[in-house]
Design goal:
The structure is a single chain. By secondary structure, the chain is α+β, with helices and mostly antiparallel strands. Among the domains are: 75 residues, Roll (Ubiquitin-like (UB roll)), CATH 3.10.20.740; 62 residues, N-terminal domain of TfIIb, CATH 2.20.25.90. The chain contains eight helices and twelve strands. Strands 2-1-5-3-4 form a five-stranded mixed beta sheet, with helices on both faces. A three-stranded antiparallel beta sheet has the order 10-11-12. The protein has a two-stranded antiparallel ribbon with strand order 6-9.
Length: 303
């Protein structure tokens, strides 16, 4: 029998099962706690620090996504200290990478009044090609130069998805999805240290030469668009990506009998993106290469 623990969150008493996190408790109370590196189908890695809360008696703020609830805890999720911490995280991220295709992060920045210009010139380049022209190859930008950490040119080495690490916030979600949490392929990992930390294949080889099996589960969890369907990237580059014209439909993958749920994004009668909802127990947000990329034939004249 699972024991229950009682704690107080923002003045409200709540009882949760032993092993539940502070984020679970806050969510059960309807408290909207911002997260970037957390996902329901992934193991918390505590790297973004967006979900930190104040625990009475603790010296530092604690990550609510990973800290287990304990009997008698008193938690505050929206104190000035918490808001300052979250705002600074957002400012540092926005001053370092292109967040133009990170809707959740941009919404959080507005919510907390983030001012990334405090840490240097702000604003993404007009397009990926412009960024790549300025920064051919990854390197650490010297102090006083354009506010950035690691610049890499957009990587387009296959026809399925692109890797634009100029948008990467190193949240580890793609690494977790490629590893023991889902795929167990281990095609990518974090390479380098400090300012040089970046997501990379082994020996930085192209995807066709790596262990990647093109399941696209990394795309499904990426919060910034650093990993993106090539069809979506092409439309964005051409200025034709139009969410107002898009519809989203859930269906079942036709390729085998597992019954994976697909979430199709359609624009101009063409499937431009295929995701899978993490809350569906059959897939938990994960697909294989056929489910992720194989159904687009219906709108591309394939057979």
């Amino acid at each position: 029998m699972i024991r229950a623990v009682t704690l107080t969150v923002d003045g409200q008493s709540i009882e949760v099962p032993e092993g539940a996190t502070l984020l679970d408790a806050a969510t059960a109370l309807g408290i909207d706690t911002p997260t970037l590196c957390w996902a329901a189908n992934l193991t918390p890695v505590n790297v973004c620090r967006m979900c930190v809360v104040e625990l009475e008696g603790a010296r530092t703020l604690v990550p609510s996504c990973a800290r287990k609830a304990e009997e008698g805890m008193v938690i505050h999720t929206d104190t000035p200290r918490v808001r300052t911490s979250r705002r600074m995280v957002l400012e540092l991220l926005q001053s370092s990478v292109d967040t133009s295709t990170a809707p959740d992060l941009l919404a959080y920045a507005k919510r907390y009044g983030a001012e990334p210009a405090r840490f240097g010139p702000h604003g993404p380049p007009a397009n990926a090609n412009e960024r790549d022209a300025h920064h051919p190859g990854h390197h650490h930008v010297p102090a006083g130069a354009e506010a950035a950490t690691v610049h890499q040119p957009r990587k387009v080495d296959n026809e399925l998805y692109i890797r634009d690490y100029g948008k990467c916030i190193t949240c580890y979600k793609c690494v977790e999805a490629c590893g023991t949490d889902a795929q167990n392929t281990f095609a990518i990992a974090v390479a380098g240290r400090g300012f040089e930390a970046r997501i990379s294949t082994e020996y930085n080889v192209g995807l066709p030469d790596s262990a990647c099996v093109y399941c696209g589960n990394c795309i499904n969890v990426c919060p910034t668009g650093a990993l993106m369907f090539k069809s979506e990237a092409d439309l964005r580059d051409a200025g034709k990506w139009d969410e107002a014209k898009q519809t989203t439909t859930r269906t079942i993958c036709p390729y085998c009998g597992v019954g994976c749920t697909l979430e199709l994004t359609v624009q101009d009668n063409r499937i431009v993106r295929v995701m899978s909802p993490p809350e569906v127990s059959v897939t938990n947000g994960n697909l294989c290469i056929k489910g992720r990329f194989g159904v687009t034939y219906v709108s591309e004249g394939g057979g």
